[in-house]
């Protein structure tokens, strides 16, 4: 679970304009942060299969958003991949 302060920081780093909270870049950044947090949780709690399912759904959603960005805005996609340190 991300705190409001963390969410605000992630949004401000990746938003296109001042009031942007829902662009693909922001969504990917938020999902990446949540995936990192959930991965840490699952390392401690290996038998938590409900959370593992949620993690897989988040990874799938992030992949779909990244595919969309790669097709629509390749420059933005490359910049986002580099900023979040993700594999292509």
TrEMBL record:
SMART domains attached to this UniProt entry: Ribosomal_S15
Biased composition (Basic and acidic residues): 10-22
The keyword Transmembrane appears for this protein: no
BP terms from Gene Ontology: translation
Region (Disordered): 1-23
One GO CC annotation: cytosolic small ribosomal subunit
Entry keyword set: Ribonucleoprotein, Ribosomal protein, RNA-binding, rRNA-binding
Superkingdom: Bacteria
Example GO molecular function: structural constituent of ribosome
PROSITE patterns: RIBOSOMAL_S15 (PS00362)
Entry annotated with the keyword Kinase: no
Function of the molecule: Forms an intersubunit bridge (bridge B4) with the 23S rRNA of the 50S subunit in the ribosome. One of the primary rRNA binding proteins, it binds directly to 16S rRNA where it helps nucleate assembly of the platform of the 30S subunit by binding and bridging several RNA helices of the 16S rRNA.
UniProt subunit comment: Part of the 30S ribosomal subunit. Forms a bridge to the 50S subunit in the 70S ribosome, contacting the 23S rRNA.
Family membership noted in the UniProt record: Belongs to the universal ribosomal protein uS15 family.
Record's protein name: Small ribosomal subunit protein uS15
């Amino acid at each position: 679970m991300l705190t409001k302060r963390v969410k605000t920081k992630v949004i401000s780093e990746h938003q296109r304009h001042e009031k942007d909270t829902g662009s693909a870049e922001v969504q990917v950044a938020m999902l990446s942060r949540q995936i990192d947090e959930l991965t840490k949780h699952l390392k401690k709690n290996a038998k938590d299969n409900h959370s593992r399912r949620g993690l897989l759904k988040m990874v799938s959603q992030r992949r779909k958003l990244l595919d969309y960005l790669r097709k629509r805005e390749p420059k933005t996609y490359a910049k986002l991949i580099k900023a979040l340190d993700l594999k292509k």
